[in-house]
Amino acid sequence: MKKILYIILALLLIAYLSASIYYFTDKKPNETLCEKVEIVIADSLEKYFLTEKEIVAYLTKAKLFPLNKKSNEINTYQIEEALLKNEIIESVEVVQSISGRVSIKILQRMPVLHVFSASGSYYVDKTGQTMPSQLGQAMFVPVASGNIEKSFAVSELYKFALFLQNDAFWNDQITQIYVRSAKDVELVPRVGSHRILLGSLDDFEKKLRNLRKFYEQVIPKMGWEKYSVINLKYKNQIVCTKK
Known about the structure:
8 helices; 36% helix
């Protein structure tokens, strides 16, 4: 009798699993309405260029907002592609669950440089891509101005700005970058009233390494206000102009 009972229970279990599989895999995707959309802006505590309200409005205008749509009417790929057209967004992941919930996870771009040039103003992000200058939030990144071609801004100048951001000392010290003709770079420090003539960005790490030694060994003796210009253009030399 126990054996027969086990067989009956096993058959009932198989029938239940079969019905469940049929319900969720055959009917559910076509009939389930999306009753909840979860929008996560992953780095919103660090920077808030975009809001959930703006994302909803944008997708609604594009007729892609999934709320109250049937599962088979929701195209997650189209939602991702539409959002990636926004220059502020770095990446998007849209996931649709079997229960009908849609999760939209967004990663914003991170500016490392603010460029002001004859062709207009814009940010350059940590991947070397440009961003609009109107972000809705002030970003405390180095400002570059002067004779700046966009090709220079997203290549050599971007790499220099990324170096500054990743170095705590120089990130605090350098506030402005001025580009003269022929990519001749001048820096404005936060501490001291001197100008730093960097010249080309070739070997900029070595130039700044030498300047830091100068700061550590000479400035304590001479003071920050002793020099008006510190010139790093010459190989392995620091040429200073006194006030």
